[in-house]
Design a protein that fits this description.
This protein is mainly alpha-helical. The chain contains 23 helices and 2 strands. It has a two-stranded antiparallel ribbon.
């Protein structure tokens, strides 16, 4: 494999990877124009977005210049480095408007970076106790960061950057996370990425229109066009940032049910969703095992929460059904919106929500966590092992939706789940140890919930970090740990683990 000048004896072309990162930063820098225009219109501090945009584009151009001698293609090995660097760098520049906004709640650089990481990874965890006190332009940037990160900046890069000839498939696969083989909707990976973005934009437009209509028709007087845009950007990305301190609790029941529908759709594999909504292959619903299990688990989680909130006397009637369904869908799809303060619910309800955090949405969706298909494949592997314990000579292939799953894919599922649980355990331990060092009042369930919510890109956790609270009480070191958990969760851990291997850097 040819290497760029200056790459030395490294087994990875760092120059080509940095060249691609620079190209992505130039596109990200242009997005600061949106909140800048809003800030000018509202008489808010517009120059913070101007500075952020100039710096981001400037660094992108600089990286392009210093890597101008690199080859025009990014290989599979470079893909791991590109993905890891982009998801570290973009929040670093994305937090600049927070630091320059003059908002005291985001004046701490660690908190500002945490907020940006939470935004771009579509997590929805916040360190801002009073969201409504932030300028509208800053709120818009928070929501927009969700939307940009939800479908994936990488997918946009695959769609528009011509240098992605070799590594484009791997980079697109990294965004449509999961162990299933990437299927093409068209003849080329770039056209597939473009169509996915068209679907993403179309779903966003439909969500804005649907929410706005609820306000315009008087069904929900609290739903203005600004509220509709802000929450549509968040819900389609399965992010969870809201411009209200009480999340979406203040909206009418019809609005909350509409959000449930959008979350449910956005939690489906976007390749499948494209075939269902655009190509109208309705039989996909019947044949797709993951989709069927996804809907089944959502129904089961909703039923469990309904029993618990009714038995606990928290809700009754339609409000109980709506509250249970909304929270089950919101948590399992890793959105993080809330209609109720679940921090006050029973321990059994909290454990149900914690289990839903570890399930996640479908592979290839904008959601995080382990993903439904991995649980499905693990269950099939366990079943096969039990059968082979009785019939030792039997050859039993594992099938998913009728197709035989490669043994390598099954091993990767097991490795991922082990790594996921190990990182979760280490993250929780780090939070507990740091809480003791800092003499912070952090209970064990709060540390467990925060680690699970951030690694799974869910957002709200338990206790003070619940849906109507914030992560602000955590120390700077704990906040940094949680930011890294969000980063690892968004990358699905494996690319980072690969970078830590000595063999990765060797020729």
């Amino acid at each position: 494999m040819p290497r760029s000048p200056g790459s030395g004896r490294l087994g990875v072309d760092v120059g080509s990877a940095l060249d691609l990162v620079g190209g992505v930063l130039k596109y990200v820098g242009a997005t600061f124009l949106v909140p800048l225009v809003v800030a000018v219109a509202l008489g808010e501090r517009w120059w913070s977005f101007a500075v952020a945009g100039v710096v981001t584009v400037g660094v992108g151009v600089f990286l392009d210049r210093i890597t101008s001698g690199t080859r025009e293609q990014v290989g599979p090995r470079e893909g791991f480095l590109v993905v890891a660097l982009i998801w570290l760098a973009v929040p670093a520049f994305g937090c600049l408007p927070f630091l320059l906004s003059g908002a005291e709640q985001l004046s701490n650089p660690v908190n500002a970076y945490f907020e940006a990481v939470s935004g771009f990874t579509a997590t929805g965890a916040t360190v801002v106790p009073d969201v409504e006190a932030l300028p509208d332009s800053v709120l818009l940037w928070r929501q927009l960061s969700h939307w940009l990160g939800g479908m994936g900046i990488i997918v946009l890069a695959v769609a528009v950057l011509p240098r992605l000839r070799v590594g484009g498939r791997q980079l697109l696969q990294s965004e449509l996370a999961g162990p299933t083989e990437l299927e093409r909707l068209t003849a080329t990976i770039r056209d597939t990425a473009r169509r996915l973005w068209v679907l993403y934009v179309g779903l966003t437009a439909a969500a804005i229109l649907g929410l706005a209509l609820l306000g315009w028709t008087g069904v929900d007087p609290a739903m203005s066009l600004w509220e509709a845009i802000a929450h549509a950007l968040s819900v389609v990305a399965l992010g969870g940032f809201s411009i209200n301190n009480d999340s979406v609790a203040g909206f009418a029941p019809a609005t909350q049910w509409f959000l449930v529908l959008v979350m449910l759709l956005a939690g489906i594999n976007f390749l499948r969703l494209y075939r269902i909504l655009v190509q109208r292959h309705v039989n996909v619903v019947v044949r797709d095992e993951e989709l069927r299990l996804y809907l089944t688990l959502l129904a089961a989680g909703s039923a469990l929460l309904l029993v618990e909130v009714v038995a606990g006397g928290f809700l009754a009637g339609e409000a109980a059904v709506r509250g249970a369904v909304f929270q089950a869908v919101s948590v399992m799809t890793t959105t993080g919106f809330a209609t109720e303060n679940t921090a006050t619910w029973t321990a059994l309800a909290s454990m149900t929500l914690l289990l839903l955090m570890f399930i996640g949405a479908s592979a290839g969706s904008t959601g995080g966590s382990i993903k439904v298909v991995r649980h499905l494949l693990l269950a099939k592997v366990v079943r096969r092992e039990l059968r082979q314990a009785v019939h030792r000579d039997a050859v039993i292939p594992v099938r998913l939706s009728g197709a035989v799953v490669d043994e390598r894919a099954l091993r990767s599922v097991s490795v991922f789940v082990v790594l996921y649980l190990a990182v979760f355990a280490l993250g929780t331990l780090g939070l507990v140890v740091e809480a003791r060092r800092a003499s912070a009042d952090v209970a064990a369930i709060e540390a467990i919930g925060a680690a699970a919510a951030c690694l799974g890109n869910v957002g709200p956790a338990f206790g003070f970090a619940g849906p109507f609270g914030s992560y602000e009480p955590f120390s700077n070191l704990s906040t940094g740990i949680l930011a890294m958990l969000m980063w690892l969760g968004r990358l699905e851990i494996v690319p980072v683990a690969v970078l830590l291997m000595r063999g990765y850097w060797r020729p």
